[in-house]
Amino acid sequence: MALINENYLKLKAGYLFPEIGRRVKAYSDAHPGQRIIRLGIGDVTLPLPKSIVNAMKSAADDMGTSSGFHGYGPEQGYDFLVNKIVENDFQARGIQISADEVFVSDGSKCDSGNIQEIFAIDSKIAVTDPVYPVYVDTNVMAGRTGEAGSDGRYQNIIYMPCTAENNFQPELPKERPDIIYLCYPNNPTGMVASKEKLTEWVTYAKKNQSIIFFDAAYEAFIQDESVPRSIYEIPGAREVAIEFRSFSKTAGFTGIRCAYIVIPKELKGKTTQGEEVSFHSLWNRRHTTKFNGVSYVTQKAAEACYLPEGKKEIQESIAYYMKNASLIKKGLDEAGYKTYGGTNAPYIWLKTPEGKTSWEFFDFLLREAQIVGTPGSGFGPSGEGYFRLSAFGKREDVEEAILRIKKLS
Ligand code: MLT
Predict the structure, then answer these.
(1) Ligand 1 neighbours (beta carbon < 6 A)
(2) 20 to 30 A from 119, CA-CA: which of 97, 309, 320, 351?
(3) Are 369 and 406 within 8 A, CB to CB?
């Protein structure tokens, strides 16, 4: 019999969102006819902007002609999209990124899960706690960790607790990590990192020769102009950081799949012999070996996000979700909950009432108000006693959810 990768056996239970789905299904099967409001997984609900749909239709028409047909494209993405990314997401903010430093992909979940492959297996990783589970689980699968302890923490990972006590801002680790995972605006806490905070991280990474993985999947939701949208707004970040961006939440692409990763050419690692190697060239090798590029139709849809009409429609969707966020936050505050986030991010993080654990509160909310959220402990041990609500629901559901929560209290 073939041997399995035993690292998979170290993983705790199932992946968070399918586990929530399983519990919700069990509840709804047992209570048919009850209207369940889903504010759990951060999945968009608004239809795609018209200009994006039109771009997809016209790209599909291209594909039906001999002059417009596209087979395999460049694995790194078509120039028509990459150039728009560079101009709009970086140059417009005074950031210098060259087109060949961008790799278009089918999602930030895959990118942030796959990137660890180009690092040594004994690399030490540091994660905030709570954290997007993909960062931890993919390192467990790769064999970079030991077993999970009774406190829910894996051996050989540096956890940086983020709780109300430190205003959800992790302390710089005392032990040196090779890789630091940061996500801002943060999933799940909805908090942001100021320019000063990110500068501290870049300085720390330079001093310790660590690499920062900066997940900026939610940058489009930043309302406060002083908050950086890209880590490359911080001087020196090109030498220490890889950035992840996604069209999923920004433009409603969760079902279409398109994202990108930026790896500056300055970013170097070394072999055990001390020879310097660029991560850019390693990722290029990996990407071209394991990936055949995002479809032409999808990349045309992504390109439409940067055209004037697309930008306008995307802004309207973001404003809609951020209005949801403010309604949820206000409603919860009025109902006596302690809330965080939700002003520069589509997630509201709340303290569970009466000392309930995160899963107890999940069950309570589902049973008493038929509302689905995400238990904070699913994002890591320091998320215990917290709960996340997503602002990506439909307005009528958000309003109804607030009414139900207010009735509970
Ligand atoms: C979330 O709810 O945390 C996200 O939707 C998960 C994801 O983007 O993969």
Answers:
(1) 41-43, 109, 187
(2) 97
(3) no
Q: How far from the centroid of its chain's Cα atoms is residue 102's Cα? A: 18
Residue pLDDT, tens place only, 273-310: 999 999 999 999 999 999 999 999 999 999 999 999 99
Buried b vs exposed e over 167-178: b needs ≥16 C-beta within 10 Å?
A: ebbbeebeeebb
- Residues making up the chain, counted from first to last: 409
Distance CA 242, CA 181 (A): 10
Residue 302 makes CB contacts below 8 A (sequence gap 6+) with 81, 104, 247, 251, 253, 258, 294
CA distance 147 to 72: 41
In this prediction, residues 312-324 reach a mean pLDDT of 98
- 100 alpha carbon to ligand 1 midpoint, in Å? 28
The backbone torsions φ and ψ at residue 153, rounded to the nearest 5 degrees and listed phi first, read -100, 140
**Residue 110 half-sphere exposure toward CB, CA atoms < 13 A:** 17
Instruction: Indicate the pTM of the whole model.
Output: 0.97
What is the C-alpha separation between 218 and 108, in angstroms, rounded? 11
Domain regions of the chain by residue span? 13-47+309-408, 53-307
Cα–Cα distance, 9 to 333 (Å, whole number): 41
Say what the pLDDT of residue 345 is.
98
Nearest protein Cα to ligand 1, atom 9? 109
Residue 71 phi, psi dihedral angles, 5° rounding:
-95, -135
With the most atoms of ligand 1 within 8 angstroms of its CB, the residue from 19, 41, 186 to mutate is 41
Q: What CATH homologous superfamily does 13-47+309-408 map to?
A: Aspartate Aminotransferase, domain 1 (3.90.1150.10)
Structure token digits, residue 104 = 């278009």
Identity of residue 138: T
Which stretch of DSSP H or E encloses residue 20? helix 16-30
Whole-angstrom Cα distance, residue 222 to residue 345? 6
Q: For 189-232, how does the pLDDT look when each residue is reduced to its tens digit (9 = 90+)?
A: 999 999 999 999 999 999 999 999 999 999 999 999 999 999 99
- The number of the ligand 1 atom at minimal distance from the alpha carbon of 188 is 3
Q: Whose CA is nearest to atom 1 of ligand 1?
A: 42
- Rounded to whole angstroms, the Cα distance separating 113 from 217 reads 14
